[in-house]
Amino acid sequence: MAEIGSPPSYQQPVVRKKNTAVIIVVVVVAALIGGLFILQQSKKNKQPQVPAEKETPSPTEMPKIDKKDVKIEVLNGSGIAGQARIAADALKKAGFNPDNIKTDNAKDSDHKITTVAAKEGFDGVAQEAKDALAAVFDKVQTESSKLDKDNKFDIVVTTGGIPPTPTTGPSASPSAIPTGPTTTPTPSSATTPTPTSSTPAPTH
User: Fold this and answer.
1) How does DSSP classify residue 184?
2) Residue 72 bridge partners (DSSP)
3) What are phi and psi of 92, to 5 degrees?
4) Which residues contact 135 (CB under 8 A, 6 or more apart)?
5) Are strands 101-105 and 114-118 parallel, antiparallel or unpaired?
6) What phi and psi values does residue 94 have, to the nearest 5 degrees?
7) Are 75 and 84 in contact (CB under 8 A)?
8) 0.70 cut: is pTM over it?
9) Angle, CA of 180, 184 and 189, to the nearest 5°
10) Residue 165, CA atoms < 13 Å, CB-side half-sphere
């Protein structure tokens, strides 16, 4: 016989079931929360990370080269006498130092185009040399290959082709040169009324 005041024995399983249900709910909720947290973390990890912008290094400025200090070798590559001198004169007029320009003959004398080769870092002055030579040669091009750094010259010019013939004085019209007979006044007969012994007119 059950004691008075004690709960019925059938209530204990009900309480256990309730506790079990609460635990299951808590576990499910915790699992859901954990799942959502893991899902959010995975989404964050999957998002493409924008790489940090790398600072582009500013190009180092090459020191400006004074063309008066540039050493130039001019080689006659056409076999035409005096062609290296013509090229050297054009470079001198462009401001290059005459003392730093040397002339010589190239190994071959069948060059058809005047070429300009330069050391690394001398592209600017090589372009100036090319522009100066283009005034006297019909075809001038820059060599893509650079001169060896141990070369004693900074720029090597090899002439080619035939430069235009400069216009000189003998091509002027001979009529421009005054001659003796044309300067002497001829109409002496018109002055016959005037005595020849009178004072002559000034010649200057």
Assistant:
1) S
2) 101, 155
3) -65, -40
4) 90
5) unpaired
6) -80, 0
7) yes
8) no
9) 150
10) 5
Contact 139, 98 (CB under 8 A): no
DSSP code at position 193? T
Residue with tokens 């075809």, as numbered in its chain: 139
The tokens for 7 are 């709960």
Report d(CA 129, CA 135) in Å as an integer. Answer: 10
Give residue 174's pLDDT band: very low, low, confident or very high (50, 70, 90): very low
Our CA dihedral for 121, 124, 127, 132, rounded to 10 degrees, sits at -120
> Which residues lie across from 102 on neighbouring strands?
73
Long-range contacts of 172-175, Cβ-Cβ distance < 8 Å, separation of 24 or more = none
67-158 classified as CATH 1.10.150: no
Beta bridge partners of 49: none
Mean pLDDT across the chain: 75
Read off the tokens for 186. Answer: 């001829």
pLDDT digits (tens, 9 = 90+) for 106-137: 999 999 999 999 999 999 999 999 999 999 99
Strand pairing category for 72-76 and 140-142 = unpaired
The helix/strand/coil state of 1 is: coil
What is the CB-side half-sphere exposure of residue 76 using CA atoms within 13 A?
13
